[in-house]
């Protein structure tokens, strides 16, 4: 997984004593790391906090491996630890968001204003963190669950409801397994699921785009290539053909965002006119096409990092462009170059 591999659990902790299970125990825990990272990301909305949460989970699991009595599966046991780590991290009650969650749309001629702190925002994730499955339909459903809009919607759920929904509908635990994990009844799990589903359904109904519709992969790729070419040449006519009439564009860490083709074009040809002549390097984020955007350098030849663009596609049109400006942290995560020479 691009840029996300942190230090593996080692068979000796800081005390220096060998733990039961040895290298085999550590290897068994490591098989769950990628899946756990996707789960923690959905819980926390931050790729960097998810990375820390998974490492803390692995450390706790390693230290307690000798007490694992195998009355449940190792996967259930590790997820119990990861859930508790995430719930502890969410105890402060602060939720991450996208600009659309904080204010209404603004005119495309509006300057971005003041940047907000990095911990306010949902962060993009390299590729699509999904649970391991051989079922194509289940894989598609899991990929859907990491889209930026879905991760942002999850933040509106109480943290325990969020965990319950993810464990049941994304990670495919049974209601009984979740009840054992939470230390509650199956009835409580089902009640939490019902409330969580109702909240997400209400938010989906209030959205302007159909978040349940996905374009075929080949069509996504073709649209993404057309978008990259149009953006690089600043061809507003071509861009207007690719964008949904109610498409949105946002610019974390700024709260400003636009809705509609005319306001997006006003932004690009006004405050963002310096993007003319940019180079876009393709990548993947949250299961969607994405690009590292490099603007012409103001200090000579070449191109400097400007933003990570995540493109959301529904049907045969682009419905959202999220431009994450924190290139110092995000570009290394996505294995994007520090600059592009002329």
What does the model show?
The chain has 13 helices and six strands. With 342 residues, the protein is an alpha+beta fold. A six-stranded mixed sheet has the order 2-1-6-5-4-3, with helices on both faces.
Mean pLDDT across all residues, rounded? 86
The proportion of residues in beta strands is: 5-15%
Residues in helices, as a percent range: 40-55%
Number of helices: 13
- The residue ranges in which pLDDT falls below 50 over 5 or more consecutive positions are 1-18, 208-213
End-to-end gap = 30 Å
Strand sequence of the main sheet, in spatial order? 2-1-6-5-4-3
Helix-strand blueprint:
Blueprint lengths: L21 H9 L2 H12 L2 H17 L10 H16 L46 H9 L3 H7 L4 H11 L5 H8 L3 H21 L10 H17 L2 H7 E9 L2 E6 L1 H9 L9 E7 L2 E9 L6 E12 L2 E8 L2 H7 L9
Parallel strand pairs: 1-6
Antiparallel strand pairs: 1-2, 3-4, 4-5, 5-6
Helix pairs in contact: 2-3, 2-4, 3-4, 7-9, 8-9, 10-11
Name a few traits of the molecule.
six-stranded mixed beta sheet; disordered N terminus; alpha+beta; globular; 342 residues
What would you say about this model in short?
The protein is an alpha+beta fold. The protein contains 13 helices and six strands.
């Amino acid at each position: 997984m691009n840029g996300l591999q942190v230090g593996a659990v080692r068979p000796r902790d800081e005390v220096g004593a060998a733990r039961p299970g040895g290298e085999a125990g550590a290897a068994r825990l490591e098989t769950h790391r990628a899946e756990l990272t996707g789960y923690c990301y959905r819980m926390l909305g931050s790729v960097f906090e998810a990375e820390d949460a998974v490492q803390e989970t692995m450390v706790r699991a390693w230290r307690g491996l000798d007490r694992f009595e195998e009355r449940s599966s190792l996967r259930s046991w590790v997820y119990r630890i990861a859930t508790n780590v995430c719930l502890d991290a969410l105890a402060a009650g602060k939720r991450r968001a996208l600009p659309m969650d904080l204010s209404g749309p603004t005119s495309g001629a509006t300057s971005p204003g003041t940047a907000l702190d990095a911990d306010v925002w949902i962060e993009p994730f390299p590729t699509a963190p999904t649970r391991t499955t051989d079922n194509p339909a289940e894989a598609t459903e899991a990929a859907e669950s990491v889209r930026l809009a879905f991760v942002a919607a999850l933040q509106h759920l109480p943290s325990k409801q969020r965990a319950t929904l993810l464990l049941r509908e994304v990670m495919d635990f049974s209601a009984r397994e979740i009840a054992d994990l939470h230390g509650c009844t199956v009835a409580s799990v089902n009640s939490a699921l019902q409330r969580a589903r109702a909240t997400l359904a209400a938010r989906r109904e209030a959205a302007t785009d159909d978040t349940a519709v996905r374009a075929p992969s080949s069509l996504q790729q073709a649209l993404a290539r057309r978008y990259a070419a149009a953006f690089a040449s600043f061809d507003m006519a071509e861009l207007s053909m690719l964008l949904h009439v109610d498409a949105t564009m946002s610019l974390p860490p700024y709260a400003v965002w636009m809705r509609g083709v005319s306001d997006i074009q006003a932004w690009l040809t006004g405050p963002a006119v310096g993007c003319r002549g940019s180079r876009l390097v393709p990548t993947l984020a949250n299961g969607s096409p994405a690009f590292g955007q490099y603007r012409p350098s103001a200090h000579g030849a070449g191109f400097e990092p400007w933003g990570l663009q995540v493109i959301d596609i529904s049907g045969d049109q682009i419905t959202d462009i999220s431009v994450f400006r924190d290139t110092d942290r995000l570009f290394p995560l996505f294995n994007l170059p520090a600059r592009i020479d002329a």
